[in-house]
Write a structure and sequence with these properties.
The structure is a homotetramer.
Chain A: H1 6-16, E1 20-22, E2 25-26, H2 38-52, H3 57-60, E3 61-62, E4 71-72, H4 81-97, H5 106-118, H6 131-144, E5 148-151, E6 174-178, E7 182-193, E8 200-204, E9 217-222, E10 228-232, H7 248-251, E11 255-266, E12 270-273, H8 276-285, H9 288-318, H10 324-349, E13 352-353, E14 359-360, H11 363-388, H12 398-401, H13 406-412, H14 420-434, H15 437-447, H16 453-463, H17 467-478
Parallel strand pairs in A: 1-10, 5-8
Antiparallel strand pairs in A: 1-2, 3-4, 6-7, 7-11, 8-9, 9-12, 10-11, 13-14
Chain lengths: ~475, ~475, ~475, ~475
């Protein structure tokens, strides 16, 4: 069928009846109508609708030689630098539509599926590995325009370096049985964003010290597989009023714990299992990091543009652009934006085709960008709070503007260049972006997108080719 | 009557029927039962109850020679360093009871009233000044154990340095008429914390450039004075569950815009008006800053203790105390705590009796502390988020723990040293302290408690006695 | 004659007998043999020699249609992006030869002369402007491969915003007479790097508030013009031993005050005078900033490579690469390097031909880079000191290694992976780079290369096109 | 004899003929006349002279019941808080005399000797321990007013956590023989400040992982003991001109490697050896840290006062006090000064007599201060550079002011409020304080005074009593 429409996606999801637990109750009825999920699902549907907008066809879809229907470009395997740019522009368009605030817009996981399939040959001929199942995944996902979540964080029982789990019952998800049908998984994984709101769940293991082989596996199964449960956190939807909660009413994605209650994973869904080396090789040698970073940084740039716009509008609203310390703060955002853009562009300029013929953006620039963003994003949030100052706090609600107290609000909350209602609307946006439960979760999300910032720095240092520079210094020292 | 009890305070407040607007509706019925206010009013009442606790009499109350009833120590005019310490210990006790999270515990404004009255003679013999009315205020407040709010921030219409208001109708509150009865005030003031939740409102003007004399006044009137309206922001009470929202359910204080709709201020309530110099002199020469800082820093220290406790408990819960970067972050909090304490203690050691015989804590150390805290508090909040990491996000609700999904939660959210429920409870506290709408408002509150941090630095620099050090350098340079 | 050789340059300079004052004495004899200047002049000569190295011809020189001799590429007017890259590679080669430590390698001023001449038409038809003289300058410079210094900092009498000079005798250089021969200039300019070590001095005025028209001029005159004096600061050459002072013995450039003692500037050397608007327009509309930044950032990248090499070699020498905080520090340098590179590359990708047909690198990315570097360079210096720790202090001299104490040094200063002498040599390099008088002057130099960092931020903010982002936010807010 | 005079000290030192190696040559003749040492020795002598100044007797000296002569207060064992303050005032007076720039003014080691002797009983009855020898050391030092250096940093061969030395010949100093006479020591220790410029060398071992018992010892021997060599680094004396190098000409202390070439340490000089536990207990349980920190922080406060004076004088010289970012920078210094002072004062207020009857300043506040200073001192240095800007670079020498070029200097280097010579003198001071080799060594010295800053933070965290705060949070959580 090729690309899906928003409605197509929502209908399919409503029918699945995934086991989603929210505030102590299992979600019944259409999930797209549930207060905690309607906003984000509507926003997600709007992305799918862009794919079938006839004006945007060329920008959003591509064709495969042997197929008639158009497919979503986020599934495209890039062979040239031009392809790479097409991918970036498509992802940018989706990000613009959601102002970079949907962390798990479908292109993210589509990209992951594409990169996994493109690198499947790494698993060729290795024990307990099924590269063909990755190809099948890709075909299925592409043709049905499936949506995915994934999860690789293990429960936070003990973060000591030398911790090994000893418990009778698994805590971290493990293989507890292998039989003719497939693997049986029991235990949990933390923090699947949009868990329960997607067609499938892609599960794989991140390499770590002391990992037990029973914790090593990769597979993808439908979200409504028996025994699969999604337990949600509290919702950060502040309410349905756009005026009051312009962001959380639309972009609150929900995170959930994924529980595997003796979940049966059929063999044809398994990509590898119990092969620690293959799992490690696959993550490092595949194009996963290159393409995942490429998507994420594209989105983060759009988000930064939005932040710049919000901040500048506040500066205009209260007329503080003349202060040197304000200019300095704005220039920080500008520098962040330009830096991220330049690094993304460089990753495309330096792209090289890998052994599978896939044009990979250069990892180094992307790694640099992804080490920078977790540091600058929280600062941007802080800058908005510092500029907004007391104006971030005293923000009446939409109903107040609809009540008899309105003339007072109009008079006393006006700014020089904005009427009171517009000004409050703008500041409520700034507040929702940086200070509401939704906003602070965004901050935490960007901080930890690719894991512990401490490890990101370590990895960048370790992977960086430093020999040339060391050699230059040695030569300098040896000149006399 | 002397000190009030919690019940006494609540009854009095319920009877006042202050004009409080919340989410487009005027609050009817007992304000102490309204969802948005019940938590904070209960917490406030619990402070008053400490005063009548017979075990705490000596710590909480004092006697005046000519009076029989005990009075609250926050109203005590200190004559000795010992008095100063008594004041500090009493304020500490209240702060401990609320973990430093009630920004406007009654002792803050009691202290302000005490300092104003103690410095009233500054106004003696000056035009449009009524020092006796300050003495009367103090007597009334002391004897009835009144509670106050105050407000001096003007509407944020335009923050340019050269802005002057030109509008037909006042925006910033102004004197629009003077008659036999008193002053008539029209316009607004921003950000009265606990506005409408106190017996009286103390209004005075902060000196600034280009201030018009019609904006210069100081008075205190009952919160239910005709024409006085309090317009609230959205409530940050997350709900009534202690488990879910341990802080906002108790300590959300509410902020409000104070509207003066042609409010008549009787002459015997006016302290000064239309005398720009007297107003400026009064704020600078009175003991206002010394005592207000002394209270605030006492409370901030207790809050920092609470933050240290929460952070260390998280470190234990997920067992990350071995990491050097974690130790470094904790040491930042410890240094902050020790620094604030040392500066507060120094301000008491260096206290000197002023010309009115009042023992004033030394302003310099307090100014240093109050310039430091707006910078370190947001960092503490960040540290908790950095250590809690993904654990700050995935936090199921109390109802989830009461549902059939509980065994999954118990198994998968346990930590090494805590069961799942206790761990989630702890992390929900950390989240409410730093990431909920309540928590981020606390951050903004500490950042701006005494106004623009940029100006705090300027003031510290300007007021600091630097001549001795300059002279030492001159001598050094002139030695040869 | 086209490109000069090192010897050619030195001979020419020695003959000029510029009036250079050093430590209270006028420099006599060959300046290239003077202790304070021999190192830098030798280094400069080595750059010129690269131009006549037959292996490097294509990389270093270009031809003009009507001319037979090759010219230095730093004089090339780029018409295409390819030309831009040629320029960058040539400048990179010179920077590599001096490890980015020669702030005023000749390509800097050559670039300035090129950009001035390329933009000369801006002055067409304006009062007191002589665009043809700029063309003549370019021709002369190109053909004789002249070397320049320039100076635009005025004496630091008073840095208040509202300062205007009132003194009987000029302090800041001014036009004191105009006659048939030309302009007579009296007064001083601060901080000509390599002042007295170049063929000519290019003088022009930076726009500022309250500038008097008598301070507005631009011209270029020989360094040995009568009345022109260069007063040097203390020399930072630590000595002639490469082991002891590997950098200052080669790259100490010297800075000088330029005194104009009634200097006669012939009309044919004047580009403009007493036209405040033309001067401001010229600096802002010409390609000066684009090309000057392009050169500077090219050099700074090479310097950062050198810093990365030195730091990594220290990490290896004392085997501290395993520490997370060390990895974090190295990753800061790597991120800085990658960021600068990406921004430079983007400036070339986004280059556009200006109205004069010159391919200008995009200013925005370069402005971002030039706002970043003054902040990260001092941090790099700090990182080296933090990693080197006590090893940066205890560094015996070359003579100690040549004395009978050597066996002790060999035994006690060895490191795991380096013998004592090599280790001390390396740490002396690190020390000379960051802690010697030479090293700290480098830090100050990078901090202030393009002026006050506070103003750089302001400019970036002011010039940045923000409207699109503001508009996006407005659209978002107006959706409902 | 009691307190010595400056001359007494110098005569004694000159007679010792310590084996000091400087720039490849052994120092011959009077060390107090050697160019590299004359400045610091003169400065040191001036401190001793203060002790015999009849006006300062009470401030500088104390009496012991059984003795007639006065002794230096830095040797006084404090029994009361009043004694503690006397010690602090005496140390402050010495620090003021040298502007806090002499890191190893004699009171530092006198304090160490006093604290060691006061805690000697810790060694009572333990293997290989000689507490009586510590008492003898104290008596000898007190009565002769001896001066000491010490050294505990081991050679920087390999800083990996798991490094153990394996080499045929010792690198780090070790016991290589024990015989009737005493211990024979071979190997080196790094970084004895003023090594060779003191009467004795106090050697002891800092506890560390994997330490071999042969590296564990503590003793004090005369600096001219046979086989003891001091190998100096390059001198940072910039010259003898006070104008040119106001600080390095007086306060450059020199650091040296201490080589033990089979040095025989007589038994009566040994305090302990080969007892790892006793060594560790002694350092942790003795009052060493309390008193050493107390001295250091007293000095650092005086240094900060000097820095504040220099910075404010620069601000006045170039009239930049109106800028908000300048005020902010100055306020940073002020906050640092007030914080250090408050913490020092608190350590005295909280002092408690230890089991030996010695009034120990509280360690926690001192540890906080000593963790803060290594971070703020480098920032102060940076602030001076940022405010001085280009004025820090272009600084002519004294000879230039004595030459015929002087009128130019007078005219062009004047500032609004200072003549050229005074202004250059001031800026040369600022440069010598922060940018000369002397200045940067001061920065490194303060950064590493008590070792690796990373470990200081760890220690503060580990030692800090956190249980009360954790318990408060537990109680809060358990209230419902």
């Amino acid at each position: 069928m090729g690309v899906t429409s928003g409605k197509g996606f929502l209908d399919r999801l409503n029918k699945m009846k995934n086991e989603v637990w929210f505030d102590g109750e299992r979600v019944n009825g259409n999930i797209s109508e549930h207060l905690a999920f309607k906003g984000i699902l509507k926003a997600k549907a709007s992305l799918y609708d862009l794919q079938i907008d006839s004006d945007l066809k060329d920008e959003m879809t591509f064709f495969l030689p042997e197929e008639k229907e158009p497919f979503g470009i986020s599934y495209m395997q890039p062979k040239t630098k031009d392809d790479l740019q097409k991918r970036r522009k498509m992802m940018q368009a989706w990000a613009r539509n959601t102002h970079g605030l949907m962390g798990r817009s479908p292109d993210y996981m589509n990209t992951v599926v594409m990169s996994f399939a493109s690198s499947a040959s790494i698993l060729n001929g290795r024990d307990n590995c099924f590269p063909d199942h990755l190809h099948a995944l890709y075909k299925r996902a592409l043709k049905q325009d499936l949506s995915f979540t994934h999860t690789f964080i293990t429960p936070q029982v003990n973060r000591s370096q030398v911790y090994m789990e000893f418990s009778d019952e698994p805590i971290s998800a493990k293989i507890v049985e292998k039989n003719n049908t497939g693997l049986v998984i029991k235990g949990a994984r933390l923090l699947a964003t949009q868990g329960g709101l997607t067609d499938e769940v892609l599960v794989f293991s991140a390499p770590r010290l002391f990992i037990d082989s029973s914790e090593v596996f990769a597979f993808s199964i439908p979200s409504n597989t028996k025994g699969l449960k999604f337990i949600c956190r509290e919702s950060f939807v502040g309410g349905e009023s756009f005026f009051n909660h312009p962001l959380s009413s639309q972009y609150e994605e929900m995170d959930s714990i994924v529980v595997f209650d003796n979940v049966m994973v059929p063999w044809d869904r398994v990509f590898y299992y119990e092969n620690v080396d293959a799992a490690a090789d696959f993550l490092l040698q595949s194009s996963f990091y290159s393409f995942a970073y490429h998507q994420v940084i594209t989105r983060q740039i759009v988000k930064t543009e939005f932040i710049l716009g919000v901040t500048e509008l506040i500066v205009k609203a209260i007329n503080v652009g003349e202060y040197q310390h304000i200019q300095d703060k704005l220039s920080e955002i500008i520098i962040g934006l330009e830096t991220m853009r330049a690094l993304l562009e460089k990753s495309e300029n330096d792209a090289v085709a890998d052994v599978f013929g896939i044009m990979r953006p250069s990892l180094i620039s992307l790694q640099a960008a992804s080490t920078i963003y977790p540091k600058i994003y929280p600062r941007f949030s802080e800058i908005i709070q510092l500029i907004g100052a007391s104006g971030m706090i005293l923000l009446p609600t939409e109903k107040a503007f609809q009540s008899e107290i309105r003339p007072d609000l109009d008079q006393y909350l006006q700014s020089d260049s904005m009427n009171a209602k517009d000004r409050v609307k703008l500041f409520r946006l700034a507040w929702d972006l940086t200070m509401s439960s939704f906003g602070t979760r965004q901050t935490q999300y960007e901080r930890y997108f690719f894991g512990d910032p401490v490890k990101l720095s370590s990895n960048l240092y370790s992977n960086y080719p430093k020999d040339f520079y060391v050699e230059e210094v040695r030569k300098f020292l040896n000149q006399q």
